[in-house]
# Entry
Amino acid sequence: MDLGIAGRSALICGSSQGLGLACAEALLREGVNVTINGRDPEKLEKVAQGLRGLGGEVQAIAADQTTIEGRAVMIEAAGDLDILVNNNAGPPPGLLNDWDEAALLEAINANMMPAVQLIRAVVPGMRARKFGRIVNITSAMVKSPHPLMGLSTSARAGLTAIAKSISKDVACDNVTINNLLPERIDTPRQEFMAQRIMKEQGISREEARRQMTSTSAAKRYGRPEEFASACAFLCSANAGFISGQNLQLDGGSYEGLI
# Structure
């Protein structure tokens, strides 16, 4: 399928590894010119070198999206954007006693504030040009909260709510805003969780990963490229009538009806 976005420009936040990197690869293969982002300049440039030649042009912008200054650098360098993929690492697991005011504010400043402010920055241009695709990478925890993931759930649920509100206003100008809700995709985040289980239970990496995949209906990890393909479609010209939605990529694990 021709997604109809060759030559478009995209900014992928938090794309030096994991889901962000997979989305950058998928869009580049569709001929999109992609700006990747991370905080480590050396790591980011190595990643950029590996991406060049896939299709579209690659630009690397080292900046901290959680700061006003960092976001300003990203927006200025990326130029007129057709596609924005919001992504950032989630906060650590914990319980109520861990969630003091500082922890809550840190989660919001990582997993809600950057996305909202970047959306504010790019939407006017998208509306004027009558094309825009915004995808927020959130979490399955938005719809299925877990006791240990309250920080992630709360911040990302706030982003989900405001994104839905904005989506209804901008749809008339062919600007869409959707959310991807991953669970058990085989990324460095899942490795972090496996290492945590290994330490807590004194078990092997293989057993930790087995425990984690046993909670998935598919009984396996999802592949980053499976996730990225969904992202690319939501960014496509063909997806103009899909907006304000939450697409779960969880191997069929969600137990709810809608």
